[in-house]
Structure formats: C-alpha cells, structure tokens
Amino acid sequence: MKKTLRLLIAFALGACMFLTAFGCKKSDPYKGKTIINFGCYEGGWGREWLDGAIEQFERMYPEYHVAVDYNKSYAGGTLYGKIDVIPQDMYYSPINLYDYLDNGKIMDVTEIVNTPLNEYLSDSQIAVTETKTIASKIWQDMKDFCVSYDGKFYSIPFGGGFYSLNYDRDLFNSKRLFIAKDGTWCNLSGDLSVGQDGEAGTYDDGLPVTYQQFQDLLNRMSKNNIIPFTWSSIGGYTQHFAHAISVAQDGIDVFNTFKFMEGTYTFAGDAAPTAITKANAYLLRNTRGKKDALQFAKDLIEGGYYDSQAGAASMDFLTAQDTYLMSIENSKHGSGKPIAFFIDGGHWYNEAKNTLIEMADMSDDYKDRKFGVMPFPWFEDATATKSTYFLSSASSCLFIRKNATEPEGCKKLLAFLNSDEALKISSRTCGIIRYMNYDLDQSDLQQMPYYYRTMWEASRTGDICYNLCNNPLIFRNYSYFDEMGWEWSCTTSNGTVLNNPLNNFKNSETRNVTVEEYFNALRTGGQTDWANIYSGEN
C-alpha cells in the first residue's frame, strides 16, 4: 500500500512538471485583490512585527494583499528624494517629519486617528471591538510632535527600545553576581535585594542601585575573570549610551526642563536656580548627570573593564553581538573570557535571534538563554526618583504618502497597525515598545523572551525620556539634538575635538582629557552651537 501511494505521488509530481513545461500558467494567488505597496525600513526591529500584523489584516480584509518591500533605503533624505515616484504608498520609516510636511509629501490622517477603531474598521470580516481612538493612546509628547501647524495628524509615532545596561542574566546567576538583601553576593536562589524600584519580585531584583555597588560589581567581575563590557564600532550606540547615563542621573524633570526649555535648574556651586529659556537652554549641557556620565565612562576605561576589541573597526554590530553571545562558549575553549554587558540599543536582541537559535541547537546549555535590562546605577548627586531611560528610534513613524494610488486600503491598514492587537504583536514578536498606552496580559508575556519582558516592565514602571515634542527649536534642528551633536560634541580650550566619552577616553589621542575638561568644553560648545540654531523665538 505504501509503495502504491509513493507511486501515485510521484506520478502526480511528474504530471505537474510536464504540464508546467508545456506552458501551463501558474495561478496568481493575488488575482482580483487590491495591492497595498508598503515600504518598510528594515532596521534592527526586523520583519516579524509587520508580517504578523499583515497576516491578520489580510484575514480581516481578504480583498487586499499587502506587498512589503523591506529595505534600508526607506529612511530620511534617501526616501524623501524618491517618495513621489516609487510604487510604495505606505511606510514605516525614521524620518524628520517636518521636512516631509513642509513640502506636502504626507497624507492627512486625522480622521483615522480620531475615529474609534471599531467604527473605522467596521467593514472588517473579523469584528473589531476596540472602541478607543488612536489619538487617545499616543503618548502625549509624541502626540504634540505629530500634530502639525494646522492641528492635523500626518503620521503616527511608532516605537523602539531604550538604552540600558544589557546584561547576561545566566552569567550573573552562575557566577553569583546578584546582590542579596544583606549585601553579600548570591545567585537567583538567594534572598535578592529589591533594586531601584524598591519592590520585590520585579525585573531589577538583585541589581545594583548605587554607583558604588556597581563599581563593586565590576571589581568582582574582574577578580572572577569576567570582562564587564563590549561594544561595536558604531559610535552612535556608545554616544547615546553615555547620554542615557546622564539622563538616568538627572531624571525626567530635568530632562523635560531642557525638552520644553522652560523651568529652572540649580547648577553645581550656585546658591539660586537659573531660569531656563530657549535663549539659554544650552546651559543644560552642564547638569550633574552629564558630569556623572563622563565619570562613568572614564572609570570604565581606566579600570580596563572592557574587551580588547571593543569599538574596533572590525567590530560591526553583528560581529559585536556574536562576540558577546559566544563569549561564554569561547571561554570554555581557552579563547577569551565571558562578557557581562553589551552596549547597544534595545533592538540588539532582535537582531541577534539567528545566533541565539544556532547556539540553542549547539547545546542544551544555551536553550532559553536569558538576558535582561539593568537600570543605570545612581551616583550620590543623582536627582532621579525612578529608574529613567532614554529612548532609541524615537523618530520612527507610520505614514501614507500624499499621492497614494490605493489610499483607502492604506488607511485601513494604518488604523489596524495601531490597534491594541497589532501593538501586542509588535511587543510579543520583536520586543518593540510602541509609543502608546496599551497592556500585555500574562499570555502575551509568556510568549516573550526574558529580555523582551524586562524591557516591557522597565518601560511601564520607569520614566522614559525622548526629545520629540512640540518645540520648534528641537524639531527644526532634530539632527543636532538626535544625532549626538547636542549630546557630546565639543572642543576643549586647547583645541582637542571630542564627540564620544567612551571612545575619547579610550583613544590614545584624547585619553588624557580629564572629566573636568570635557565637562567645561560641553558648555562652551553648546553656547557656540546655540548661536547658529536659536533665532530669537520665545
């Protein structure tokens, strides 16, 4: 019987090949459907978030097929120059929104944003029960940024991750690197301290709270043949990482004083607070947190708490990820030492999925490997009251071009991509923190790797800082504020050019610069830059 079945299958396959060879046309699975052409910037968040959402959308609207072109060219100025002539109608892209608005490149989507989702998607083949509007869910500052001069929406902010201390939880457990309530070192079976949030049973249990505890941890690692840090050659990651340390010290109130350029700040040594306005906001390059971040970087380098290849030209982001992930395995074979921390944005884990899968196939020891988010430890002068994180990928958004050939389908897809169902798909599959108010239930969390769960918990219990807001001085000069010019670029009094604390303190040409010299240069450089971007608006 089995032999007969195999013969029948072979005959069927042969007949198919014969008919194909003689001109039988392959059926078009999308015949009769309306095609929505989507241009997706394929960065660190990959494809799963969009593929999963589209799969559901096409069940809801079987008359549509979404054709996605994944490409890194769908970003900023590269996209701007061709958006009017390429076939793609809808985009996920990191852009400077106002460049596109000034020249009428983007469709008004105000109706979509302000209509309850169950009403806007009422013609779906699968009933939509969500009664919220997209506008009611967007984080307020993001909403202010996306509302244009005329009070309308032209894009919807997307999401990303944030900069933190990415740590190897399994390594911490095996080497007893967690802090117990009595101050001793322990593994996960010990009586863990409660961490920065002061609550037991949360993502930061057993992790350092103060900078002194963190220094003690680094020393313990070194004594136990563990390399604390590594990072890639991509300068932006280390620049933003250092900035995130400063934000974590100052806290969200100080950050928002800069962001909205109003309020007061008492600088070190001053008896009275200084009023902050758009005319003098450059002074906030000299917050206590900025100096703490410089000290953190200086201590890390001078203590030798990094891999010898950290930041080397050969360490592109994928090589750096593999170096980090394989460090335990390589150390077993006499090649290097285990590495505890990896400096990168919150998207790194999603980029490293293939390596994680390969390692799990290699050995049962690497199945269900756990990495986590560690809050930045507080210096003694920190003013933050909660764990505070600086966003990555803040400028990414979803939008439809103005001259879309299939506008109605694009509008329905845009609405669905911002439903709670699609938001959950983003977080479950890729760990993306969408810039909206939504919840994950226990079933969602159980489907997520430990790293995604800790990033989600940190985003919901800590303070999240980002530059986007309704401040023309920022959004008109977004490249300066988001691409490290504001963060660390300056020149010392003797002409030394600086732009990245970790690299500058590590490189032979600049390693002798002191924390004080760098800190003073930030103020001078900020004042010079301000003269070029501030035009007198108040």
Structure description:
The chain is an alpha+beta fold and 538 residues long. The chain has 2 domains: 34-161 and 393-448, 3-Layer(aba) Sandwich (D-Maltodextrin-Binding Protein, domain 2); 162-391, D-Maltodextrin-Binding Protein, domain 2 (3-Layer(aba) Sandwich). The protein is 42% helix and 13% strand. It is built from 25 helices and 20 strands. It has a 5-stranded mixed sheet. A hairpin with an 8-residue loop joins strand 11 (263-265) and strand 12. Helix 2 runs antiparallel to helix 18 and helix 12 (288-302) packs across helix 25 (515-533). The longest helix is centred in the first third of the chain and has 20 residues, at 2-21. Residues 1-24 have low confidence and may be disordered.
Features of this protein?
4-stranded mixed sheet, globular, single chain, 2 domains, disordered N terminus, D-Maltodextrin-Binding Protein, domain 2, 5-stranded mixed sheet, alpha+beta, 25 helices, 538 residues
Q: Kindly report the oligomeric state of this protein.
A: single chain
- How can the largest sheet be summarized? 5 strands, mixed
- By secondary-structure content and strand pairing, the structural class works out as alpha+beta
How many distinct helices? 25
Q: Flag low-confidence runs.
A: 1-24
Whole-number radius of gyration?
26 Å
When the domains are counted, the total is 2
Strand content: 5-15%
Helix content: 40-55%
CATH class of the largest domain: Alpha Beta
Mean pLDDT: 91
Spatial strand arrangement across the major sheet? 2-1-3-16-4
What is the fold named in CATH at topology level of the largest domain?
D-Maltodextrin-Binding Protein, domain 2
Outline: globular
Measured between the Cα atoms of the first and last residue, the distance is: 86 Å
CATH architecture of the largest domain: 3-Layer(aba) Sandwich
Number of strands: 20
